[in-house]
UniProtKB/TrEMBL annotation:
Coiled coil: none annotated. Pfam families: DUF5753, HTH_31. One of its GO terms (molecular function) is DNA binding. Residues 22-59 form the HTH cro/C1-type domain. It comes from Nonomuraea fuscirosea. This is Helix-turn-helix protein.
């Protein structure tokens, strides 16, 4: 446990720290994953997912785990605190980019593990829908900044993520405000190409794109983007990521996640889809061409 509180724990998420400590305690107790699963009333596969860090166990599950391995009282209290903290993690962009050139591969891994990905964006076109040039302009404005030499690599990694859109076994849903669609990080032709791209992807069977017009009635108006990652597995496989200016928050608490699900439901009622959405994009394109003359 001291290792987790000191140097060995730095740079690891609370979820990973919890997973490592639970596995260490099981190994020290000499209990197999199958035996532990039987003792605490969960499946062996869930024990494996907890120990790999892909699932955050509930507090009652951690309490039962502690009892099964006969952990001392201080360790049980530490695990309880760590479990509570693991349900909402904060990762600053600056710290994350000190460890790696970009985050696109990490985000792609999260997307690959989800059966359904739902993205709400109030300020820019979502990354999974961006053209290469739009993405390059967005990354060039990022703070902390990318170097000119890193930009091609970051853009290529973002485009690689977009291949998942063509996997018909998975579902992607997007909600984009009109303000985000009108954001122009370059010449008018850049935005025209981007709107064409959104219209084209909206025709995919497994992709649903909703647009929220500015002249509609605002029933809810989140000021920040968020993404719902949902799996066919246990509830612990699902989570929400919230992007704010200096960090991203990973939310796994059931009550907090329910807030974002409610907001998503309300936002879908404000959006237009399919032919209506494509007609809206065509009108936006016409407006942009008119202003560029």
């Amino acid at each position: 446990m001291e290792d987790l509180a000191g140097e060995g724990g730095r740079g690891r998420s609370k979820r990973q720290r919890l997973a490592g400590e639970l596995r260490r305690l099981r190994d020290l107790a000499g209990i197999s994953g199958r035996d532990l699963a039987h003792r605490i009333g969960i499946s062996q596969s869930k024990v494996s997912r907890i120990e790999s860090g892909s699932v955050v166990p509930s507090l009652p599950e951690v309490t039962a785990w502690s009892e099964a391995v006969e952990a001392p009282t201080p360790t049980r209290e530490f695990l309880a605190d760590l479990t509570q903290a693991a349900f909402t993690e904060m990762h600053t962009w600056r710290a994350a980019l000190q460890r790696q050139t970009h985050l696109q591969d990490e985000i792609r891994e999260q997307e690959d593990q989800a059966q359904v990905v739902r993205v709400y964006q109030p300020t820019i076109v979502p990354g999974l829908l961006q053209t290469a040039e739009y993405a390059r302009r967005v990354f060039s404005l990022f703070d902390p900044p990318y170097s000119e030499g890193d930009l091609p690599m970051v853009v290529a990694a973002r485009l690689q993520r977009q291949l998942a859109l063509y996997d018909e076994s998975r579902t992607f849903e997007f909600l984009i405000t009109e303000a985000a669609l009108r954001l122009r990080p370059g010449a008018p032709r850049l935005l025209l190409a981007q709107l064409d791209r959104v219209a084209s992807l909206s025709t995919l069977e497994n992709v649903r794109i909703g647009l929220i017009p500015q002249d509609g009635e605002a029933l809810v108006c989140p000021s920040h983007g968020f993404t719902l990652y949902e799996s066919d597995g246990s509830a612990g496989d699902s989570f929400v990521e919230v992007e704010v200016t200096h960090m991203r928050l990973t939310v796994r608490d059931a009550d907090d996640m329910a807030t974002y699900h409610r907001q998503w439901s309300v936002l879908t009622g404000m959006a237009i889809y399919d032919d209506a959405a494509r007609q809206f994009l065509a009108k936006l394109s016409a407006d942009i061409r008119a202003m560029a003359r």
